[in-house]
Amino acid sequence: MCVVCTILIATTSFNENTSQIRFEAGQKFPSVSISNDSTSFVLGETSQSLVLISFWRSSLAESRLACNAYDAFFKNSSSETDGIRFIAINTDKNEDLFHEIVYCDGMNTLRQFPLSDVFGVNTDALRRASSAFYSVLLNRQGEILCFNPSVDYLSSLAL
Questions:
Q1: Alpha helices (runs of H) in the chain, residue ranges in sequence order
Q2: CA–CA separation, 31 and 43 (whole Å)
Q3: Comparing C-alpha atoms, which of 112, 64, 123 is closest to residue 88?
Q4: What is the per-residue pLDDT across 38-80, written as a single tens digit (0 to 9) for each?
Q5: Whether 131 contacts 91, CB under 8 Å
Q6: Per-residue pLDDT reduced to its tens digit, 6-28
Q7: Is the pTM of this model over 0.90?
Q8: Is 25 exposed, middle or buried (0-12, 13-18, 19+ CB in 10 A)?
């Protein structure tokens, strides 16, 4: 199952300019640079694979559970070699807590990024926009296919 919807969040940036991030199926995901100690890439650009982005935070149990389910799915399948790449962005402001949860939950550290490692977009706007869903699936052109895809749906795509 894959949920298709429109999400619009408006925020004000620190310089008082209005910043808006709009997430809608079929629309291009913002071009966002992301990196950690092991890897870096740009979201929203043409890719050789589909990209699943999971947004999670410690205070929202459902988002954390979804991220763990995706992480387990990709650990136990060949989906990343079958055309789906998975990354997770933690939207907490406490990076130490992020690292502790990743370690305690046994998540793959190569796929986990704190929001402080995201560049090219207003991170406060991204944090607010992503609070309306837990994940987004991008096609190879960087366009949003759907929100919150189930593991069964991802499995059907990886065949």
A1: 61-75, 95-105, 123-130, 151-157
A2: 6
A3: 112
A4: 788 777 666 788 999 999 988 888 899 999 999 999 988 765 6
A5: yes
A6: 333 332 222 333 355 667 888 88
A7: no
A8: middle
